[in-house]
Design a protein that fits this description.
single chain, about 70% helix, about 0% strand, globular, Formate dehydrogenase, Formate_DH_dsu
């Protein structure tokens, strides 16, 4: 899927959630993308964000950053004895 389409769709989701309470906007966007976007779509939007994320609305950028951070495996160190 082309980045322009993903940006458009993500911003449409953001427009829907912009009328929620301030503290519910980013979690709402992130939840929707996590639930309804195919993993390949999420990976594509993460890659697009890594390139600057031009055109993404601020709340949408924040939500995608949150999803990207949550996706990372927990960094733990194992020290055997």
């Amino acid at each position: 899927m082309k980045p322009d389409n993903l940006v458009y769709m993500a911003n449409q989701i953001g427009k829907f959630f912009q009328y929620q309470k301030e503290d519910e906007i980013v979690p709402g966007i992130a939840s929707h993308i996590k639930k309804f976007w195919d993993p390949r779509m999420r990976e594509a939007i993460f890659a697009y964000l890594d390139q600057g994320g031009d055109g993404l609305d601020p709340y949408v950028k924040e939500a995608i950053l949150h999803l990207k951070e949550v996706k990372k495996p927990a960094e733990t160190s194992f020290q055997g004895t």
